[in-house]
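User: Hello, can you help with two protein structures?

Assistant: Certainly.
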Amino acid sequence: MKKNPFKEIINDKDVPEEVKEVVMSELNSTNLLTDFADLFTLKFGSVFEDLIKNKKKK
């Protein structure tokens, strides 16, 4: 069975707090951008489509 090369490279199992903060900040930024993209693409199109359908009914 092959040995895991990452276990040989990474000896220290604790990650510094600064690195954790940077990673979490990047994840939060990515999540925010994803939410904005979702809002202005999928949801905006759905709302616009509903408005057009409702105007045609009146």
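That covers the first. Now for the second protein you mentioned:
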Amino acid sequence: MSIAKGDTDLAAHKVKVIKLSGNLNSTNSQEFRQNITQFIENGAKIVLVDFQDVTFMDSSGLGALVLAFKTLKAADIKLVLCSINEQVRILFELTNMDKVFEIFPSQDAFNREQRDLVRSDKKSAIVKNYI
């Protein structure tokens, strides 16, 4: 598994991206957890894990994701996922983790929703200031 880190075009909103590739399993789940810890230290508000290039995930990978979710939630950071493949989707459904994690079809879909939220927040602020 390889991990690429970066920001989305919504970097001003402290969105950090982890782009995984290959397998997420017992061999590399520790590396994934270490990367999550760095995002807490870097002041992220949202961590997006992009699964587009992940070919396989086992129970250890799922455990690493659940631990990351709990760790980030304790630090008031939101963890979201995108671009999961069929094998990962089935694993999530069998374990009911699809109800725990917010999952977007793609990174673009996540970015669109975030932009819409920012726009609606700005409109709400304008209305409040007007009233």
